[in-house]
Amino acid sequence: MEIDEAYSQYLVRINVNQGYSKKTVESYKEDLKQYFNYLKSIGIEMVEDIKSDNVRDFINNQSEVKSSSSVVRMMASIRSFHKDMSFMYDYLDPTINITVHKNVQSLPVYCTVDEIDMLMSSFNDDDPVQFLDHAILETIYGCGLRVSEVTSLTLNRLDLSNKTLRVLGKGDKERIVPIPNGTLIVLYKWVNEDRNIFLHQKTNLLFINKLGKKITSKHVEVLLQRKCVELNFKKHITPHKLRHSYATHMLQSGADLRSIQEILGHSNIQTTEIYTHVQNKHLFDSYQRFHPGNLDGDLHLEALRNKKKRDDD
Predict the structure, then answer these.
(1) How far apart are CA 172 and CA 79, in angstroms?
(2) N or C end of the chain: which has fewer CB within 10 A?
(3) Which of 40, 170, 236, 277 is catalytic?
């Protein structure tokens, strides 16, 4: 079977029968496009002609330009396709004996408190369009939400009196998230003032744009890209890194790991434990920078290195 035809059939099946989320389907589609373009570039047009070595070569090439987590996800996409082909048409699965390991988990990138303050104070809150963007970012950071959770929030899930949000997270699991006072002030103004300016037709969505439509995740991503340039941030800040910032700052302020897990909506405590590694690294870096013994030791080590270099010369 030709690759293009097999790909079309596979997409129909995963959209209808497999119960994959829309985001997963989009990821699989993008990964498989790259995979199939590679196969065609080496002259392979038929599914049954794909060999294990072809898959390995493609994955090795991707490993040179992508992170290990991206390569693992890409391998999952390829494996899903070939498993489907094997089940439907009894083709040999070239991925059976291929294993791709994820490297040691990298620590999440997060903003400092000063960077968050700079970001949030960069908006003109007298401009309803800018205040909308401010309110969205404030809610992501202030409540530790995923961007998809923020853009889907509805008015009936916001309780300003009790300072809570009822958030519908992954797997349609609901959790109660406390709203800090700073975020509460922003949300109160948005709900009672600026939102009404954009309200052209009845909707229960909390955040709407100036056309009265739902805010997209892409809008938030582009907003942060623009702000990084405007504020001359060296970090590439994304909506999810604001969530990382929330968790890291909570831990640094003394919050316990279980509470952070509940608020973030992590089903597994191990997912939340990555922030303890961030905290440990922060403490280690502070020790290395500020401990008097290290400062004196650096000078002594430098003197020893210079002496060894003179002796070697």
Answers:
(1) 27
(2) C
(3) 170
Q: Which two tokens stand for residue 165?
A: 């949000």
For the segment 114-163, what is each residue's pLDDT rounded down to a tens digit? 999 999 999 999 999 999 999 999 999 999 999 999 999 999 999 999 99
CATH number at residue 234: 1.10.443.10
- The answer to whether 243 is a known catalytic residue is yes
pLDDT in tens, 11-54: 988 887 666 778 888 889 999 999 999 999 889 999 999 999 89
Q: Check if 170 is active-site.
A: yes
**Rounded CA separation 84/9 (Å):** 10
Catalytic residue status for 146: yes
131 plus 39 within the same structural domain: no
Q: Which of 243, 244, 246, 249 is catalytic?
A: 243
**Enclosing domain of residue 152:** 113-278
266 assigned to active site? yes
Query: Is 79 an active-site residue?
Result: no
Catalytic residue among 66, 219, 240, 282: 240
Rounded to 10 deg, the angle between the 22-41 and 68-89 helix axes is 80
Instruction: Check 146, 195, 241, 249 and give the catalytic one.
Output: 146
Lookup: tokens for 94? 């070239």
